[in-house]
Amino acid sequence: MSDGVFRDQEQIKIEREELFDPNVDKALARERAGRERIVADTPPVSPARRLLLNSLFHLPLAAMLAALTCWLLLEPKIQDLPVIGGEVILINAEPFDAGSGTISMTIGSQSVYVDLQRIKLEPGEHGEPPIASADSIKVGDRIEVVGLSAGTRLIAAAIRPTSRTDSYGTTEKATWPLIVLFPLTAALIAFGLLFAEGLTTRNWIRMIERSLLGSFMAALFAGLAFIPAGIIMLISSSVLSSEVTKHPDVLVVTIKEVSGFSFLLFTICRSAAWACIGAATGLGMNLVRSTRTQLRNSVIGGALGGAVGGMFFDPIDRFMKSTMFADSSASRLVGLVAVGLSIGLFVALVERLARDAWLRVRTGPLAGKSFILYKTPTIIGNSPKSDVYLYKDAEIDPAHASVHRVGTTYEIEDMGSRMGTSVTGNKVRRRRLVSGDQIVIGSTILDFEERQKRTPVA
Q1: Among 61, 68, 60, 53, CA closest to 349
Q2: Nearest CA to 321 among 255, 237, 271?
Q3: Of 400, 397, 399, 393, which is closest to residue 444 (Cα–Cα)?
Q4: DSSP string of 6-43?
Q5: 3-state secondary structure of 256
Q6: What residues contact 423, with CB distance under 8 A and at least 6 apart?
Q7: Nearest alpha-carbon partner for 111 in 103, 121, 100
Q8: I need a labelling partner for 228 at 20 to 30 A (CA). Which of 9, 35, 60, 394 fits?
Q9: What is the pLDDT of residues 365-408, one digit of tens each?
Q10: pTM for this model (two decimals)
Q11: Alpha-carbon distance 53 to 57, whole Å?
């Protein structure tokens, strides 16, 4: 500066004539314009990046993949109805421990009871014509039987010819896959949601911690939710049982054969059961180290997602399953994927609709990411312990600034940082924020936005 301007450690002094110097005005104008450019001229975020960081995209995707993983793990172990097949070794037309009209067969090493009046005769798997009648089966025939397990015996519900030459199947049915279905689904979905959220914030330490703890708690609460969900499913099973009296010609009544009202009631029960599991998932994943608002949003989103996804199980079997020998793997695949997708979508949607204020990152590695202001204060810094973790910015302190909710308004406070905090181009110590304010912290620019005060862009 000119000789009339001198600086010491505490103050700047300007001579009177410099107040009217046009060069000073030009310098101030250049400085102000440059400062405003830093705030306003933010680089655009690519559509792909914006999509990946959008919770309405990455949360449903993560939850869907988690549910698909659960299906891949459990499906090979699930058996809907026991199926055995092979050569007929022995036929007893009058077994002493069965009623009249029932015959017993030995297929391979398995014992099968056949009620001649209540047996379905179906075509073979490869188009072989159905057997003319059950009492026409003779020793040496190769057949396949599906039915209900009764200890070491199989009560046949349907018979069809088979071209296989080996003996296969067993009357034993594993129940543990269905028992762990609910808690495993909840644990994997919770892990997927928390992992995806941690991945988008790049806070690896918090991601690992929350993902492991949240998935464990989700599994625990889903196990407890199995009680009300199980009661609801028992009600749905009673609906099927009541249909047996309407179909005296069959042993097993499937979802395909029930009346429209019973099918609707069964689907509602399935939806309600999965709503319990979805709510338990949301509760477990955010029970620890989250705010009440986050917990409420995740429980509501989980319950809604579980209810919607649960409705997709039964229509597959009712409208697409053509034979009793076919399992319900397709139904479980569609249902579980729908549950995961719906829970992720509704958790993100409820979170977005319920948010009051948030910070949107405009520059840096997290450009395009939004941080909802759930807690007060919300700490902004380059430490993984910060609520808004802005890494790879050397000008940001570990705890650089904080955002406080004061009544219905929000205020930002600089926490004695080295580089300071700017709002709309002005350095601040503490200042009330208005929707649309741009905050500069180090080399990172953030937008403050409020739902109530946000105005649409022209």
Answers
A1: 60
A2: 255
A3: 393
A4: EE-SS-EE--GGGGG-HHHHHHHHHHHHHHHHHHH-PP
A5: coil
A6: 412, 431, 433, 437, 438, 439, 440
A7: 103
A8: 60
A9: 889 999 999 999 999 999 988 999 998 888 999 999 999 999 88
A10: 0.83
A11: 8
